[in-house]
Design brief:
The complex is a heterodimer of chains A (about 525) and B (about 290). By secondary structure, chain A is α+β, with helices and mostly antiparallel strands. Chain A is about 30% helix and about 25% strand. The N terminus of chain A is likely disordered. Helix content of chain B is about 20%, strand content about 40%. By secondary structure, chain B is an alpha+beta fold. In chain B, strands 1, 2, 3, 4, 5 and 6 form a 6-stranded antiparallel β-sheet that branches. Chain B is built from 3 helices and 14 strands. The N terminus of chain B is likely disordered. The longest helix of chain B has 26 residues. The chains are: A alpha+beta (about 525), B alpha+beta (about 290). Strand 4 of chain A pairs antiparallel with strand 6 of chain B.
C-alpha cells in the first residue's frame, strides 16, 4: 500500500527543500544561457544572410556588366566570346609608338561597375589593339627574369627580401675595391649610385665596365622624353628650365607656352632618369623615369607641378640687411629668417654658388615655402628617399609639413647651402593634430607620452631622432624628417631634436648634400 | 493518520523523480547554447586580419606591363608532319616593361605567423630592431615580362610521296623510290594529289553565338562558317535550323541553355562538326 504523502514531499506550510530550489535555479540559468546563445547565433545567421544577399546583388551586377562587355566587344575583330568571358590580352600602341601590354580581366572589371562611357572607351582601346588569346600569353615569374631585372626588382623590394641597398652596396663595393667585380657587379653598383644621385661615381663605374668588359660604353637607344610643367592649379608654366639631373651632359630645355618640353637623348638599359623643372618664383619639381629595355623609343613623363612661395626676402651680406619682419643678422654674422612655422639660422658664408664658394657678389633672394598635407606638390613628395636603415626606402613620403627654401642671385642663378656647412632649422610640425588623431590611419595615434619620450631623448645629444631611432624604438607614428637634395633629386633622412611636446623640432638643413 | 514504515526496508529519503532529469536539461541547454555560439563563429569567417605581427604584402595584378617593348620572335621548335604535309612552327617573344606594385608594410607585434599572402619583413641591415614600418603603402615600378607564344602551320615541302607545287623529274624519282620501299605500291604522284592533301588539312567548321549569355526569353546571333566544305546545316536544341556553308542568323527565343551544332560535309565526303552553347544568366552565381 502506497504511503501518502510520499516521504520527501513538502507539506503545506513547510519550506521548499534546498535541493529543489537549486535545481530550479540551474534550469533557469541554463535557459538563460540557451536564450543568449540562440540570440547570438541568430544575429550571426542574420548577418550571414545579409552578406549572402549582398553577394547575390554583386553577382547580378557582375552578370549584367558581362553582358555589357559582350555587346561592346562583339564587333571587334579577333575578340571571341570565349575571350570576353575568360579574359584576354591586348597590346596597345600609343602615339609615341610604344607598346603597352594590357589585360582584360572580366571579373575584376565587371565588379567595378564601369559607366557606359568607360566601357565604350575600353572597347575603342581594344579595337585599336592587337588581341592575344589568354592561353598564348604567360606572365614570367620573378625568377625567370634576367638577372639584371631581378636585381632591379630586388632594389625596389625595400628590404622585404631581407636585403637592403645598404647591404647590396657594401657587397658590391667590396668586390670593386678588390678588383674582383664582374661586369654585372659594376652595372649593379652603378645603378645603385644612380639611384642615390651619385652620378659622377656612376659614370666612373660605367667607364670601368667599358674598359674591362666592353659593356655600357654607349647608349643602347635614343629616347624621346616629353612632358609638361604646370602650376598648383594645373595651368601650364612656360619658360621653366627643364634638365635631366642624372645626365648633366644633356642641355636643359625650356617649356613652351603650353608648358611642354621634349628631350632626345641616348639611354642605356637599366637606367633611371631624374628630370627637374625650375623657374624663378616657383618651387622645384621633379619626375622620375625608368628605362629597362632598348626597345622603347619615346616616353611621356607625368606633369611636373611647381608651386609659388609664401614669401620672398632679399639679403644683402655687404650691407648686412635683410627684408621682412622678424628677419635679422645675429652679431656672429648668422642670418636669421623666420616664417610662421620655421626659423632658419644660416651661418655666414653658407650660401654658395655652383663652385661651392660663398656668394658675395650682391643681394640674394630667398624663396620660402611652407607646404602642408593639403598643398605639398606630388612633384616633390613622390620622389625617392634614403635612410640609414634600408638605404633606398622608396617613395614613402607622406608629408605632415614641409618647409622649403631656395636661394637665387638677382639674375636668377641658383645658389645653395651645402650639408657640410648647413643651416639650422627650427620648425613646428604643421600637422601635429593629424598625427595625434592618426588621420591617415597608417600608424597608431601619436601620444603625449611619445612626445615626452622624444623630448627627453633629445636632451644632451642633438639631432638624435632619426629613422633608425624611430624604428628601434617603434615610434614610427612620429614622422621622420627628410631633407631634399635639389641636385640629386632625392630625400635624405636627417636626425632632429624634439624641443617640446607641441611638435617643435630642430635639425640641420641644406639644399645640396656634398658628403 | 499514522504512517508506518514497513520493517526491514531500508528507506532512503525519496529523491524527486525529476532531479536527474533536471540535470540533463541543464547540461543539454548549456551544450546547445555553446554549440550555437561555436557554430556562429565557424559560419562567419573573418578575414583573419593579421593583427600583431611584422608582415609585408605585395599587391600586383596580372595586367598592365607598360612602357616597354617586345623582343624579337624566336623559334622554339619546328616539326614536319609529312603525313599531313604541314610544318608546325612554335615561336616565342617576350615583352619587357614596368608594372606598378604596392607594398604594404605592416608592423604588428604579438602574433607568431603571417597570414597567407604576407611574408615576414625584417631589417636586412642588422642595424634596426626586428620590426619596422607600419602600414606604409608604396608604389613603385617593378620590372615585368610577358611571354607570347604563337604556332603557325604551313604547307610542308617534304611530304610523303613527293614535293608540293611543281614537280621535277628528280622529285618524282625520289617519290618513286619511296614507292619502291613501300613494296612497290603504285601511287600516282602529281600536283593535284598534293593540293588535295593540303585542302584536306584545311577542312574546318566554326560556329559561335554572340552573346553567349542571355536572359531567359532573349535571343542571340549565331554565325557559322565552313572551309573546304560543300554543305552545312545548323541545328539548335531549341528547334532552330538553318542551312548554308556560312551564315549569320538571329536565333529563336531561348528559354534554357541551348546548343547549336554545325554539321558540314567536306569536299572529300567527310563530316566535320562544331558546337556553340548559349547559357542563361543565373539568378545567383557561385563564384
Amino acid at each position: 500500500m502506497e504511503q501518502f504523502p510520499r516521504e520527501g514531499t513538502p507539506r503545506y506550510g513547510e519550506p521548499v527543500p534546498e535541493p529543489r530550489r537549486k535545481a530550479g535555479l540551474l534550469v533557469l540559468f541554463a535557459i538563460l544561457i540557451l536564450i543568449i546563445g540562440v540570440a547570438w547565433g541568430l544575429s550571426r545567421y542574420l548577418a550571414l544572410f545579409e552578406e549572402i544577399r549582398t553577394q547575390e546583388d554583386i553577382a547580378a551586377r557582375i552578370a549584367e556588366n558581362r553582358i555589357r562587355f559582350s555587346n561592346a566587344f562583339s564587333d571587334i575583330a579577333g575578340v571571341t566570346e570565349a575571350d570576353i568571358a575568360n579574359g584576354f590580352w591586348y597590346t596597345y600602341t600609343d602615339a609615341e609608338g610604344n607598346e603597352h601590354v594590357l589585360y582584360f580581366d572580366p571579373n575584376a572589371l565587371a565588379a567595378k561597375n564601369l559607366s557606359d562611357a568607360e566601357v565604350s572607351y575600353l572597347a575603342s582601346l581594344v579595337a585599336k589593339s592587337q588581341v592575344t588569346n589568354r592561353s598564348n600569353m604567360r606572365v614570367l615569374s620573378d625568377s625567370e627574369l634576367s638577372s639584371n631585372l631581378q636585381f632591379h626588382n630586388l632594389v625596389y623590394s625595400f628590404g622585404t627580401g631581407g636585403t637592403t641597398t645598404i647591404g647590396l652596396e657594401e657587397t658590391l663595393e667590396s668586390k670593386v675595391r678588390s678588383g674582383t667585380a664582374s661586369s654585372d657587379d659594376l652595372l649593379r653598383l652603378s645603378y645603385l649610385y644612380e639611384l642615390d644621385g651619385r652620378y659622377t661615381e656612376r659614370d666612373a663605374l660605367n667607364r670601368e665596365n667599358c674598359e674591362r668588359f666592353n659593356v655600357r660604353c654607349a647608349s643602347d637607344v635614343t629616347l624621346t622624353i616629353s612632358g609638361r610643367v604646370v602650376d598648383g592649379r594645373g595651368a601650364p608654366v612656360s619658360g621653366a628650365s627643364v634638365a635631366i639631373v642624372s645626365k648633366p651632359e644633356v642641355r636643359a630645355v625650356q617649356t613652351n607656352a603650353d608648358g611642354l618640353y621634349s628631350f632626345k637623348t641616348g639611354v642605356k638599359e637599366l637606367e633611371k632618369l631624374r628630370i627637374r623643372a625650375v623657374k624663378r618664383n616657383f618651387s622645384d619639381g621633379f619626375a622620375n623615369l625608368i628605362v629597362l629595355t632598348s626597345g622603347v623609343k619615346a616616353l611621356a613623363v607625368g606633369d611636373i607641378a611647381i608651386e609659388s612661395p609664401i614669401n620672398i626676402v632679399t639679403v644683402d651680406y655687404a650691407e648686412k640687411t635683410v627684408t621682412g619682419a622678424g628677419n635679422s643678422f645675429a652679431p656672429d654674422g648668422k642670418l636669421i629668417i623666420k616664417t610662421p612655422q620655421s626659423t632658419y639660422e644660416i651661418p655666414s658664408g653658407a650660401i654658395v654658388g655652383k663652385d661651392g664658394k660663398p656668394y658675395t657678389k650682391g643681394p640674394i633672394d630667398v624663396y620660402l615655402y611652407e607646404f602642408t598635407k593639403g598643398n605639398a606638390p606630388e612633384s616633390l613628395t613622390n620622389l625617392d628617399t634614403f635612410d640609414q636603415v634600408l638605404g633606398y626606402a622608396g617613395d614613402l613620403m607622406k608629408t605632415f609639413g614641409m618647409p622649403y627654401i631656395q636661394f637665387f642671385t638677382e639674375d636668377g642663378v641658383e645658389l645653395d647651402v651645402l650639408k657640410s656647412k648647413p643651416m639650422v632649422l627650427t620648425y613646428k610640425i604643421a600637422e601635429m593634430e593629424a598625427l595625434r588623431t592618426n588621420q591617415d590611419q597608417i600608424y597608431e595615434p601619436l601620444t603625449e607620452a611619445d612626445m615626452q619620450l622624444l623630448v627627453a631623448a633629445s636632451i644632451g645629444e642633438p639631432y638624435k631622432i632619426d629613422r633608425e631611432f624611430l624604428i628601434n624604438n617603434q615610434l614610427l607614428r612620429f614622422p621622420a624628417f627628410w631633407v631634399f637634395d635639389r641636385r640629386r633629386g632625392v630625400w635624405d633622412n636627417v636626425g632632429v631634436s624634439v624641443l617640446d611636446t607641441e611638435g617643435t623640432i630642430r635639425s640641420i638643413f641644406y639644399t645640396v648634400r656634398d658628403d | 493518520m499514522d504512517t508506518a514504515t514497513p520493517a526491514g526496508m531500508n528507506m532512503m529519503p525519496s529523491q524527486p523523480r525529476s532531479g536527474g532529469g533536471q540535470k540533463l536539461i541543464v547540461w543539454g541547454a548549456i551544450l546547445v547554447a555553446l554549440a550555437s555560439i561555436a557554430a556562429s563563429f565557424f559560419i562567419i569567417q573573418g578575414a583573419g586580419a593579421n593583427a600583431d605581427y611584422i608582415c609585408t604584402r605585395i599587391i600586383e595584378t596580372e595586367s598592365d606591363c607598360a612602357n616597354g617593348s617586345w623582343g624579337e620572335w624566336a623559334v622554339v621548335s619546328e616539326t614536319n608532319d609529312s603525313a599531313a604535309c604541314a610544318v608546325t612552327k612554335i615561336e616565342k617573344r617576350v615583352y619587357t616593361g614596368t608594372r606598378t606594385t604596392q607594398h604594404i608594410l605592416q608592423y604588428e607585434n604579438l602574433r607568431t605567423a603571417c597570414d597567407t599572402g604576407y611574408s615576414q619583413a625584417r631589417s636586412g641591415s642588422g642595424k634596426g630592431s626586428s620590426g619596422f614600418e607600419t602600414g606604409t603603402i608604396i608604389s613603385q615600378s617593378a620590372a615585368c615580362q610577358i611571354e607570347e607564344t604563337r604556332t603557325t602551320r604551313n604547307p610542308g615541302t617534304s611530304c610523303a610521296g613527293g614535293t608540293g607545287g611543281t614537280t621535277s623529274n628528280q622529285e618524282i624519282t625520289s617519290t618513286q623510290s619511296d614507292i619502291t620501299t613501300l613494296q612497290d605500291q603504285a601511287v600516282e604522284v602529281n600536283s593535284l594529289e598534293q593540293l588535295t592533301q593540303f585542302r584536306e588539312s584545311m577542312i574546318a567548321a566554326d560556329i559561335f553565338a554572340r552573346p553567349a549569355l542571355v536572359r531567359a526569353g532573349g535571343t542571340t546571333v549565331v554565325k557559322w562558317t565552313g572551309r573546304e566544305v560543300t554543305a552545312c546545316t545548323v541545328t539548335g536544341t531549341n528547334g532552330d535550323e538553318w542551312e548554308g556553308t556560312s551564315g549569320e542568323r538571329t536565333s529563336g527565343v531561348i528559354e534554357e541553355a541551348t546548343t547549336y551544332t554545325l554539321t558540314c560535309t567536306a569536299f572529300n565526303g567527310t563530316t566535320v562538326t562544331d558546337e556553340a552553347t548559349v547559357n542563361i544568366i543565373p539568378v545567383f552565381e557561385e563564384t
